[in-house]
Amino acid sequence: MNCKQFEKIRSENPFMPLNDIVHELVLQDIISFAVMPGSRISESSIAQGLGISRSPVKAALEKLASNNYIKIQNSRYYVAEFNKKDYDEICDFTEMIETHAAGEAALNITKEQLDELYDMAHKLQDTYDEAFHKGKDFVFAKLLEQEINFHFSVVKASGNQLITDIYDQMKYRLFRCRSYLLFSRPDGFYDTLDTDHVFICDILKFGDRDMAAAAIRRHLGISRSGIERFNLLELTNKK
Which of 62, 80, 105, 212 is most buried, by CB atoms within 10 Å? Predict the structure, then answer.
């Protein structure tokens, strides 16, 4: 755990709850492989190292557990396992669900839903700028949450409640593999990707099912090819 970064975030964000800061730092440790899959995370060690009580640490770890980054066994916390098979299955599932949902959304999306998506897309651009151009790496949790909400909103706009419910149950597992790419990003990656969400909104507004499905497929493909090209998953085997 990076104590200097903890103090830096705390000084720059005096009203940010301690559990949110701890959540952000542990999340970064997980997706940067500073703490490897299967490793134990000690609640008391984190609290002692940061000079805070165990309560905010526990709250942070419980949130990470609810989002499938951490598993709990015998009241102990461990980084959840993640391997190539998990990754392939998650990517295949995501492409299957989201491309179909985007096609249906192009036909069924309401003006209110489209306006909300545009707002999310523009906020994502602001967060990309904040995180990657201004050097504020501590907004990864915020960025991940905005990414999840955008994609989930596209799925909801399909009007298919069963698909929406299934996606809702799986969404944090779906985004775990993409979180590695958000952290270990190649140069220039976000210069391309940060405009993609607005482009998707434009296609949905146009109302063409096939074009919407293709836009989402391309968007997901950029992330998948980036992870594979830069061998990010190989890091999980270097324990």
Answer: 105
Same domain, 204 and 122: yes
pLDDT digits (tens, 9 = 90+) for 35-67: 888 999 999 999 999 999 999 999 999 999 998
Q: How many Cβ atoms are within 10 Å of 67's Cβ, its own excluded?
A: 21
Q: Residue-wise over 111-126: b if at least 16 C-beta within 10 A, else e? A: eebbebbbebbeebbe
What 8-state DSSP symbol labels residue 39? -
The count of structural domains within the chain is 2
Residue 232 has pLDDT above 60, yes or no: no
**Same structural domain, 89 and 164:** yes
Verify that 152 and 119 share a domain, yes or no: yes
User: Can you give the residue range of the structural domain that contains 103?
Assistant: 84-237
In this predicted structure, the answer to whether residue 239 has a pLDDT above a threshold of 50 is no
Please give the pLDDT value at position 90.
85
